[in-house]
Design a protein that fits this description.
single chain, 325 residues, alpha/beta, Rossmann fold, six-stranded parallel sheet, four-stranded parallel sheet, 10 helices, 10 strands, globular
Length: 325
């Protein structure tokens, strides 16, 4: 998908560069065609990475399945076997077509798919070291910003009284409405009011008294009242809760979501409940466990706040431009 879309990005970004004469380019990490144009442009450029990085490292499990890190001999053997299989499968599928796109942009070919994450002179990584799996070192080009939260302007939201369980689903359709339907039954009879957001379209109609379903709610208005967040594992929603000191239950449905959930679990601030195990009793138990993790979630929130933030990211971009010249 990223390669096919990337073919259309070449002319788009070239035209924008001609029209705007920018001093620096900031490219989404999944815009592979735009990254190729930036790489060939001669301009300073940065990548913005809003999800866990697939960049491999010793002691870090291969990206995708959401494996638990293991530093023992079994973990090293597991990672040693799986890493070349996972990376190799991706590389065989996309490296050739990606290099065709890069040739069309005038950018040098990549020797391996991992190089895609090392080419940018600067990577603005929208997370915290405290949330990531530990590794011995990070590339100098990586700038940890912490979660960069933003809400569109919205009227004040009438948050339900009492402690709230914020339940989130993806802004891209992935049939995760089952999470909302399960949560409303799982938390019935508890002290929690379920407030669910379904930005891809609200599909739950029979809502009990302890629940409320909205298409969009500014999370900044809800999280101060939340005792727990039950998320689909989207990096934005999950980190938004954790940055507010709210523990999470993560039920991944696909994409990078298992990796997000595993990181929340490893940080001690969340419970990972696999989709295949999602039932009302299990979700109720997971919420109960997550609520005991609030001290760890608050520690993680403080660590996230100590990262560079938006101002630090802007400083790094300015330094990149200055040093480039």
């Amino acid at each position: 998908m990223f390669v096919e879309r990337g073919r259309f990005e070449l002319d788009d970004l070239r035209s924008a560069i001609t029209a705007e004469a920018p001093d620096v380019l900031v490219i989404d990490t999944n815009a592979w065609g735009a990254a190729a144009v930036a790489d060939a442009s001669g301009l300073p450029w940065a990548s913005i990475q809003p999800f866990p990085t697939p960049l491999p490292a010793p002691g870090v499990p291969p990206f995708g399945p959401g494996l638990r890190p293991r530093r023992d001999a079994v973990g090293r053997a597991r990672d040693g076997v799986l890493r070349p299989l996972v990376i190799g499968a991706v590389q065989r599928a996309v490296l050739g077509p990606l290099n065709e796109v890069r040739r069309g942009a005038g950018a040098p070919p990549l020797e391996g798919i991992v190089e895609q994450y090392l080419r940018p002179p600067l990577t603005l990584y929208l997370t915290s070291r405290a949330f990531e799996h530990p590794r011995e070192e990070w590339p100098d080009s990586f700038c940890f910003t912490g979660p960069l939260a933003w809400d569109p302007r919205a009227a004040p939201f009438d948050v339900p009284p009492g402690p709230v369980a914020l339940v989130t689903t993806s802004s891209e359709f992935q049939a995760d409405g089952v999470l909302v339907r399960t949560a409303r039954y799982a938390l019935d009879g508890t002290d929690l009011t379920v407030l669910a957001t379904m930005p891809a379209g609200a599909s739950v109609t029979d809502v009990p008294r302890n629940a409320r379903v909205e298409e969009f709610v500014p999370h900044s208005q809800v999280l101060p009242h939340a005792a727990v967040a039950v998320t689909h594992g989207g990096m934005g929603a999950t980190q938004r809760a954790l940055a507010a000191g709210v523990p999470v239950v993560v039920v991944p449905f696909g994409r990078d979501q298992a990796e997000v959930g595993r990181r929340a679990e490893r940080a001690g601030a969340g419970v990972l409940l696999p989709r295949r195990r999602l039932t009302a009793p299990r979700l109720r138990a997971a919420v109960r466990e997550a609520r005991t993790l609030q001290p760890a979630a608050q520690r993680l929130a403080r660590a996230m706040a100590e990262e560079a933030g938006a101002a630090g990211a802007a400083d790094r971009l300015e330094a990149l431009v200055r040093d480039w010249r």
